[in-house]
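Example 5.3 — M23ase beta-sheet core domain-containing protein
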Amino acid sequence: MLKKLAIAALALVFLAPSLVLIGIGVVMNPALTATGSCTIPGGSNVTVGDVPDELEVTTANGETFTLNRTQLTHAATIIESGSSIDGITRDGLVIALMAALTESTLRMLSNTSAYPESADYPNDGDGSDHDSLGLFQMRPQSGWGTVAELMDPVYQAQAFFGGPTGPNHPSPRGLLDIPGWEEMDKGEAAQAVEVSAYPDRYRNYEPVAETILSTLTTTASGTDASAGDAVVPAAQTTTASTSRVVFPMPEGTWVLTSEYGPRVHPITGEDSFHTGTDFAAPDGTPLLAAADGTVTVAEFSGGYGGLIVIEHTIDGDTVATAYAHMWEHGIHVAPGDTVTAGQHIGDTGSSGNSTGPHLHFEVRLGGTNGEHTDPAAWLNAHNAADLPEPETGAPNGDCDTSNGTPGGDPDPSTANPTAWSTIRPRMGRSPRGCCTSTPRPSPRSPTRAGPVTHPGPAPSPSTPSGAPVTGRSATPSANTPPRSSANSGGR
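Solution (predicted structure tokens):
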């Protein structure tokens, strides 16, 4: 009996690699719906929740697209693989997702022009970049592995993370082999592993990676993964505490047109107090949740027009962010919805008391009905921007939003976002949310420690000499570059 057991054990040892390869086609197809778990050395159990059928995401440059179940299954594989490796933090998971999104859009790509046999392995399509294969477009000629190994999503993920236990250690270098990767900008860290010919393109997918990670996982305390390193299944009914804040509009789409605090009202010419900060942008520009939270308001509300309010718990404190002037068709959430930082929640409009398409952004300390505070200072304090802050101001203002009317689409007087003629107001009195007469781009700065570029403003619209610039006339043309190719270079 003992002899038979010994023989069986030896057989399993020799057959294990083959069994792993055979099992890949089953585990990594859209069938990954059951909860899986592993253990972080020195940490806690990690579990990835059910994979949804699809997920709408928005890149840093404002492009919105939908990931399918197969792509999200590959994302779950990357998360589980990284979470099982000592030294891989939450940032490491985000970096890996950014790289796979950029290189393959989370698809297992064969490459029949270089390796015809690669089509014999489970794949999501055929690529043609040099001799690159798989999720991370790794090249056999560069030493990343054999064709069989690189057509295994688990192997690719482990190779990307690298480190002493990585299958390709010590070269080519994985993430853990890059000195100081924890202090690097996430896009630069991804580039350091990928050695791509297009080093700047990874950062565009950071908000997408964050959304994926928050959707598929939560922390052991029941919060989403943005709050820590260890991750467990997403299931929560209360607003989880977080420390991550992002800018509420995509990079390169906005111009700061009116700061928080006392001002001369752009329509009435009277002294007034502005309880938010205005960012002019083309009609339909995506609006992003500034932090993880729960939607408390999604409706038309007087002078605000289309209004969304989200409550957050940030560093243990309750705060609400408000987003105003969307069209009815530009509100994409409902009260009670749970949202994640960077999630596409609505589109810029010009309903209510507004002179042209823009975001009127407010921050309310204490929650939905809390006290207003300077949004620019708040975003700056949370490393989401580097906006100018008024030298004076008060927490409470005299703005009256009772006279607004829910709008539909722009009337002819506000139809051209780049027009330079004076724009008449849609309403007779517009105490808040209107663009001032002189748009001023804000400077760019890091969103986190290290040389990161935060979502910055669009170029100021040019106007003929002496022409007035008010309301929607200050709105810039879209400055959203096309999505770059996922072809890598020197790998």
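Remark. The mean pLDDT is 73.
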